[in-house]
Amino acid sequence: MRLTQTAEYALRVMALLAANPPDKPVRARDLSEETGIPLHYLSKIMRRLVAAGLLNSQKGHGGGFVLARPLSEIYFSDVLKAVNYDTEPSTCVFGWEECSEDKPCPLHFFWRDLKEYFSQWAEQHTLEEVKQYLLQNEHG
After folding, report:
1. Which sign does the torsion angle of CA 42, 34, 27, 68 carry?
2. CA distance 9 to 11
3. Confidence at residue 114, expressed as pLDDT on a 0 to 100 scale
4. What DSSP element (H or E) covers 6?
5. Which residues contact 67 (CB under 8 A, 6 or more apart)?
6. Of 9, 68, 77, 124, which residue has the fewest beta carbons closer than 10 angstroms?
7. Residues paired with 27 in a beta bridge
């Protein structure tokens, strides 16, 4: 199972913001430099995250992006949905033209179970956990 580049970047940005003080706006340019995400691409991702209600955008001097909700209320699934990440593959992972519950390839049911597990996992874990991990491993 692979994340799209957009989904990976969105998670990277949100993890960085999780480590930042919640009331301190971070400029897109600074996020771009810190994450290595091209500014133009990052701007598109940030618009999606704002539209999804995960971030607030503050304009003007001292402006930037801040989290719109507490970290404990932002799930990995929220971030993935904001950038239209779908765990459903567009093609059969075995390469068959027709693959379904009725005509499954040898990997169909295993892949289905993996997608279900990943979806459940993403709905259970929050950015608060990312922050706690960062705090615990900051000095180790």
Report:
1. positive
2. 5
3. 87
4. helix 5-19
5. 17, 18, 22, 54, 55, 56, 74, 127
6. 124
7. none
The CA angle 69-73-79, to the nearest 5 degrees, is 85
- C-alpha 109/C-alpha 68 separation (Å) is 38
Token code pair at residue 84: 């239209």
Q: What is the DSSP string of 86-97?
A: -SS-SS-TT--S
Residues of the chain with pLDDT under 50: 140
Which amino acid, one-letter code, is at 46? M
Which pLDDT value is given to residue 60?
Answer: 86
Q: Using one digit for the tens of pLDDT, what is the confidence trace for 114-135?
A: 888 999 999 999 999 999 998 8
Residue with tokens 């929220």: 78
Are 25 and 65 in contact by the 8 Å Cβ rule? The answer is yes
* Cα→Cα distances 20→13, 62, 108, Å: 11, 15, 41
Place of tokens 């001292």: 62
Q: Three-state SS for 65?
A: strand
Residue type, position 20, single letter: N
